[in-house]
Design brief:
The protein is of the alpha+beta class. The protein contains 28 helices and 22 strands.
Length: 749
């Protein structure tokens, strides 16, 4: 049970009271969360109203994050460009790239910056107290006292530049880090699909716009607009501070005040997002995306509904439970209908619940749709939902979905992030939307309420009826390929630049050349790193503390290795096999094997029954291979095959049995299921080509250097894509299908 507590104490009660009495922050509440072994504390800055959430833990990896509500009112990319430009030097540290320079002067375990659709955050983590304090100075100065040099804006955002910097007779071009980044990002079909859904699902609020910036709109952002946005949005009154670790909250607050906050008064403007204006009836919209090849149907048809507020934990959990019931696995009714439909190649990558915005949205649809299928896809989704309302749904399936919901909220996910940062990010969106992130950490009360509510057989049908079928704010988006769109956009940009060049006065030409030369000189100038703080050799610990494994020899002769670790009530298991030397025909299908093996039936169960079985016990099973060069010789190859899963602690034994049965009894006789899976995999791989051209080219270029590089090109590179398409096409003949099934069966460990 999580209980409210008194203000946290650091040392004696008298010391704690004195710290609170003289603090620039006022304590609001604290709550002990035993399952996470921490106390979450909430404070408000007395002058500006800045919020501070501290996750007090005995962990020595301290984490800091400052976030700002950034609410664009257009698609010029102001929030994204500001994130980049703010990191190009500050009042106290006027160097061109203090963050990159600090990487070499720091013992950090994480440094980065994020731009979401409605917030921007700057987090870091370190296990070294001196290093943490150094980074805190740099981050606070960058966030609150960025110099925002106009040349940095030109470099990071956008600028006009001649192809040859000092030659106005050459072609005029758009340049800029964010401009080029977003041209690449918006060449991805999934990015276009997401932006089209957001634009029409949110007709009046900030989510209507592309917060990263539309390439066509970015060049119209002025430097003055950037600085005005900074003054209002990067203000303490609009900020949320979040910290984790064993540094007491009042110690952080003393430094926040000294380094930044004492120079600010309260902002007379409240940055917020209002409720979306709801549609009076469902709408249909057609959009297009730039396609490069005409092979198979590439259209998308997606239905999207606007739901309730993500900061309301009960609304959030009900929406998540409904999504799990409908779409958690191939045994879920709506996902099963989409996977087996011949109207498209596979379920849309947008399927599911989007809960990071202020108001949530639910989406379902298909990709790989032919022209003219919109009404049929819409009918498929609606009729599937209506059938569930009419006939009800099996109680075991609902309980399995509730089990998945508990698993997802108990797991502190994000392997590449420090544990404390994972916790912070779990509550960040709620804090930004002025919700209660402490409530999100305390999931037991709302889970108990849901457990009681799902006993009513009408609970899920009633949710479907109220949240989806009776919800008039529904969008049906049809996204169709346009094989000339990319060329038209490039031609329009060339014409626009040509017109701009023709209209330039001599003075404007000279200004462009002067700025280009100044920027080149600035980029090549050497900064003085000595003005930045650093750690010295004496600050580096001589030893590292790492978890110690417990090793046990089993009667079978296998080795069991386990670690004791606080996991919020979860258990994790992996079964690892050393890969033997495989012939080429098996290496080629190894990625297919790892993708399909956990999606098939096991023993007497078919794939749908197996998916339901998994959902009752664990969070699904993942299979992956890891093949690497030997550390002493890149020409020597070694690899492993791993089956991995997680479960609630009470299901640990059941998970072991599930993994054992899956490995020993997976079925390769479900021909239609394998064909559907390979179709889905192929569709996703082909749709990702545009956004991953650079990595595919690198894979091809390096394929002759080592066996691993060659294998990567043959399995996941361009050569692998060609083979994958061939396999998909060959599955249409019974002989080839039987041959593939036989090859997959041989891969079993």
């Amino acid at each position: 049970m999580n209980k409210p507590t008194q203000p946290p104490l650091d040392g004696s009660i008298e010391v704690a009271k004195a710290a609170l009495a003289h603090s620039a922050f006022e304590w609001q509440r604290s709550e002990r969360i035993d399952s996470l072994n921490l106390t979450m504390e909430h404070y408000l800055h007395r002058v500006t109203g800045a919020a501070h959430y501290h996750l007090a833990s005995d962990n020595d990896e301290n984490v800091f994050l400052v976030g700002f509500r950034t609410v664009p009112t257009d698609s010029k990319g102001v929030a994204h460009i500001l994130e980049h430009t703010a990191l190009c030097g500050s009042e106290k540290y006027p160097v061109r790239d203090p963050f990159f320079m600090m990487i070499r002067r720091s013992l950090n375990t994480f440094m980065n910056a994020f731009t979401s659709s409605d917030w921007t955050a700057y987090p870091f983590a370190s296990k070294n107290r001196k290093d943490f304090n150094n980074l805190l100075e740099v981050y606070l100065d960058a966030a609150f006292f960025s110099r925002l040099d106009e040349l940095d804006f030109a470099q990071e955002g956008h600028r006009l530049e001649f192809a040859k910097l000092d030659d106005p007779t050459t072609e005029l071009q758009y340049k800029g880090v964010v401009y080029n980044e977003m041209k690449g990002a918006m060449s991805s079909t999934n990015s276009v699909l997401w932006q089209a859904l957001s634009k029409h699902l949110f007709p009046t609020t900030t989510y209507h716009y592309n917060s990263g910036g539309e390439p066509e709109d970015i060049p119209s952002l002025s430097y003055e607009e950037l600085t005005d946005f900074y003054r209002t949005h990067y203000h303490p009154s609009n900020a949320v501070f979040m910290t984790f670790g064993n540094i007491p909250a009042h110690k952080h607050q003393e430094r926040f005040e000294t380094l930044a906050l004492n120079r600010f008064n309260a902002l007379d403007k409240k940055i917020e997002i209002l409720d979306e204006v709801r549609y009076s009836k469902p709408i249909r919209v057609d959009e297009s995306f730039a396609a490069e090849y005409q092979e198979a149907p590439q259209g998308h048809v997606v239905l999207a509904w606007l739901l309730g507020k993500s900061s309301n934990i009960e609304e959030l959990f009900k929406a998540e439970l409904l999504t799990a019931v409908l779409m958690d696995n191939s045994g879920s009714p709506l996902l099963a209908a989409l996977e087996t439909s011949e109207l498209g190649a596979s379920p849309s990558p947008m399927c599911g619940l989007e809960d990071s915005n202020r108001e949530m949205s639910f989406m379902a649809g298909l990709e790989g749709c032919a022209a003219g299928t919109t009404e049929a896809v819409e009918a498929l989704v609606i009729e599937t939902l209506e059938a569930i309302v009419e006939k009800g749904i099996d109680q075991e399936h609902i309980l399995a979905a509730l089990h998945q919901l508990e698993l997802s909220h108990r797991e502190i996910a994000g392997d590449s992030y420090p544990y404390g940062l994972q916790l912070i990010l779990a509550g960040l969106s709620s804090a930004m939307h002025r919700g209660d992130p402490i409530e999100l950490m305390n999931i037991d009360p709302v889970l108990e309420k849901l457990r009681a509510e799902v006993l009513n057989p009408d609970f899920i049908p009633d949710l479907i009826q109220s949240l989806l079928l009776d919800n008039k704010h529904r969008l049906t988006l049809t996204l169709t390929p346009d094989f000339e769109l990319a060329e038209h956009k490039e031609a329009a940009e060339r014409e626009k630049l040509s017109a701009i060049k023709e209209s330039l006065s001599q003075e404007q030409i000279e200004a462009i050349v002067k700025r280009s030369m100044a920027l080149e000189a600035r980029q090549s100038a050497e900064d003085d790193p000595s003005i930045l703080p650093k750690v010295s050799k004496e600050d580096v610990p001589e030893t590292l503390s790492e978890p110690r494994p417990n090793v046990r020899q089993l009667a079978s002769g296998d080795t069991l290795t386990y670690y004791g670790q606080g996991t919020n009530g979860l258990a994790y298991q992996q079964v690892v096999f050393a890969l033997p030397k495989l012939p080429q025909n098996l290496i080629e299908i190894l990625p297919l094997y790892t993708s399909c093996v956990t999606e098939l039936g096991v023993g007497e169960r078919d794939y749908a029954q197996t998916q339901a079985w998994q959902a009752q016990i664990c969070g699904g099973i993942n299979c992956f291979s890891s093949i690497k060069s030997h550390q002493d010789d890149e020409q020597v190859v070694q690899g492993t095959l791993t089956f991995s899963s997680k479960c609630l602690r009470a299901n640990n034994q059941a998970l072991s049995e599930l993994l054992a049965e899956t490995i020993d009894g997976v079925r390769f006789d479900e021909e239609q299921r394998i064909a559907e899976l390979i179709e889905q995999i192929t569709t996703r791989k082909l749709s990702s080509i545009t956004g991953s051209g650079h990595s595919l080219a690198m894979s091809a270029a390096s394929s002759g250097y080592s066996p691993i590089a060659h294998m990567n090109h043959q399995t996941s590179g361009l050569a692998g894509l060609i083979k994958l398409k061939n396999i998909r096409d060959q599955l249409k003949t019974p002989v080839e299908r039987a041959a593939l099934l036989a090859r997959l069966g041989i891969c079993i460990p």
